[in-house]
Amino acid sequence: MKYFGKRTRIASVLLATSFLTACESVNIPEVRMPDLNFRSAPAPVIDRPLPDARGVITYETYQVMVARSGDTVATMAERIGMAPTELARHNGLNIGYTPRAGEVLALPRNVGGSLVRSPSGWTPDLAISAIDNASGAITVTQPSLGRPDEPLRHRVEAGDSAYSIARLYNVSVTALASWNGLGADLGVRVGQELIIPVPDTSRTTSAPVAPAVKPVVTPTPAPTPVATPTPAPAANGFVKPVDGTVARPYNPQAGRNKNDGIDYAAPAGTDVRVAAAGTVALVSQSTGGLGTIVLVRHANDVLTIYGRVDKVTVAKGDRVSRGQVIGVVAAGDPATMHFEVRKGTESVDPAPYLR
Questions:
Q1: Count of other CB atoms within 10 angstroms of residue 83
Q2: Average pLDDT, the chain
Q3: What is the pLDDT confidence band of residue 213, given thresholds at 50, 70 and 90?
């Protein structure tokens, strides 16, 4: 099961829009959510699975419960043989909370039930095709996807909204609201676990196969000899993004010093280089103290994020090569550049990639 908890303070865009803060915590949700818009249209999604007689939906590694009209935390807990305090605590609710009809609560432990089955023919490849069909583009690398029997989950943090979360996962806010029983105001609360709707593959069509034709045989002239190019050396890790010293190291632990990346101290105007070949996924102004940020998508669902960059020389959709200059360090007191590496939407230590 993939769980997307987000207190990644600086973009790791997917990034990492929770992105960054140099001398402060970097908050990805603040930057990531509103800015991440890798595709032009939300992907179609399947209907949420129906709950059992108790209101429980059983996925591969977790369970949720759908509230009925008139339910309280206590009545929901009673139907599954759980203490109301346990259910309330796990969802960050008061014991007297009255959920809306259709509202989804996360269960802290397995209470038994039949596992949700994937629709016939559903595959991750077809789900990616559904996303591509919706956007009218080709996905450069496979996005992180949930499955019908194991949807992704997102834990809401300060600064999140239903709109920013829907945009992050490229689903419509309507689908997000329907799957989670959100109210008319689309309000979400800090600590709430939201289920991310799963792409629908039933609307995916395969490209038509061209009819076979008899090849026409024509004489082929002898090929002109050409020099064989010398292959480029294999990349050994990522290029250090800037010539500077570490001002704030990677620190994934929650707290005042949390940092989802590395902050480098470097004079304003110092070149900022892309760490590895990839495609620019986003150039935007962050709302978390990182100034202008650049997100680059690489192979294997890896993203790099560059914060506090000035005079950016690339645009969304550009292909970039390893070591290519994409801007300069922005002025600051002191001047610093923020760098993150993300695997999917989770920040990871950049150090192993930079060796």
A1: 12
A2: 76
A3: very low
**pLDDT tens for each residue of 142-177:** 345 678 888 889 988 888 888 888 888 878 888 899
8 Å CB contact between 12 and 343: no
Portion of the chain with pLDDT greater than 90, in percent? 41
The pTM is what?
A: 0.47
Is the pLDDT at 260 greater than 70, yes or no? yes
Phi, psi of 11 (to 5 degrees): -40, 90
The structure tokens 């009218």 sit at 136
Q: Residue 187: which region, alpha, beta or left (left: phi > 0; alpha: psi -120 to 50)?
A: beta
pLDDT number for residue 304: 93
Q: Where are the alpha helices (DSSP H) in the chain?
A: 28-35, 73-79, 84-90, 124-135, 162-168, 173-180
Q: Which residue has the tokens 């001047």?
A: 335
* Alpha carbons 253 and 32: distance in angstroms, whole number: 19
- Ordered by where they begin, the domains of the chain are 56-106 (3.10.350.10), 245-354 (2.70.70.10)
Distance CA 344, CA 296 (A): 12
Cis amide leading into 49 (omega within 30)? no
DSSP-assigned letters across all residues of 210-255 = PPP-PPPP---PPPPP-PPPPPPPPP-SPPPSSSSEEEE--B-SSS
Encoding tokens for residue 55?
């209101």
Which residues, 6 or more positions from 187, have their beta carbon under 8 angstroms from its beta carbon? 162
User: Residue 185 in 3-state DSSP?
Assistant: coil
CA quadruple 134, 137, 138, 141: dihedral positive or negative? negative
- Give how far Cα 267 sits from Cα of 314, 323, 328, 342, Å: 21, 19, 9, 26
Contact 75, 66 (CB under 8 A): no
C-alpha separations of 274 from 158, 242, 278 in Å: 30, 9, 9
Residue-wise DSSP of 21-76: -TTS---HHHHHHHH---SSSPPPBPPPPPP-TTSEEE-SS-EEEEPPTT--HHHH
How far, in whole angstroms, is CA 43 from its chain's centroid? 14
